[in-house]
Each structure stands twice: as structure tokens, then as C-alpha cells.
Design goal:
The protein is mainly alpha-helical. Helices cover 58% and strands 8% of the residues. The protein contains 3 helices and 2 strands, in the order H-E-E-H-H.
């Protein structure tokens, strides 16, 4: 199985974020609320907020793969 690069992971997460409704804000704990454009910039920079978004999104995708949301365990 081919290993996915960090760049590819970031791009996948950016594509997921792009599907958010216009005007929607996402809260990142005590960091505040962010528009999808702001989230994308943080992911591209790879800063603390971008890393947190990436970690949460990867966790969500892994859970979907395992069928956790659909009781397919």
C-alpha cells in the first residue's frame, strides 16, 4: 500500500472544507470561529490551527472507514 504524503493529506482536507456551505463558521475550541476560507489558509500554512483541523478531519475519516457512524462494526 502506498504511503500518502502530508501534502496529499492536507489537500484532501482542504477539498472537504471547500464543501462547507458559504457563510458557515466552524468553532475550533478556544481558538475561535473560522470561515472555510480561513480554515483553508491555516491548513495551507500548517500552523497550530491547521494541524488541529487536519487531525480532527482525519479522525472523522478513519471513523467513517471503520463504520463507526453507521453501526457497521
Amino acid at each position: 500500500m502506498a504511503k500518502i504524503s502530508n501534502r496529499e493529506i492536507r489537500q484532501l482536507i482542504i477539498e472537504r472544507i471547500k464543501t462547507l456551505s458559504p457563510g458557515r463558521k466552524i468553532s475550533i475550541g478556544k481558538e475561535g470561529d473560522f470561515s472555510k476560507e480561513e480554515l483553508i489558509k491555516h491548513i495551507q500554512k500548517g500552523d497550530k490551527i491547521g494541524e488541529k483541523i487536519t487531525k480532527v478531519q482525519l479522525s472523522y475519516l478513519r471513523s467513517m472507514k471503520k463504520g463507526i457512524f453507521f453501526n457497521e462494526k
